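In the lab's daily routine, each protein ends up as an entry in a very long ledger. A line of letters takes care of the sequence, but it says nothing directly about the fold. The fold becomes a row of whole numbers, each drawn from a learned catalogue of backbone shapes. The protein below has been through that process, and both of its lines are reproduced in full:
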Amino acid sequence: MQKENVDPIGFGLRYRSRNMGNDDWKTWQKLYPTIKFKVNIDINISDTGLVQ
């Protein structure tokens, strides 16, 4: 998503809501491609098989 410069999760909106200023959007556009995210996933598969 960062390589394509898209933010479907809305991190930019959250950033703007907490950093109100004249250059907040320009700053976010510079920051977003360089931010490193750490993702932790916890999955529980309750059943497997075909769905009809």
User: Anything to note?
Assistant: The longest helix spans residues 11-18. The helical segments are 11-18, 24-31.
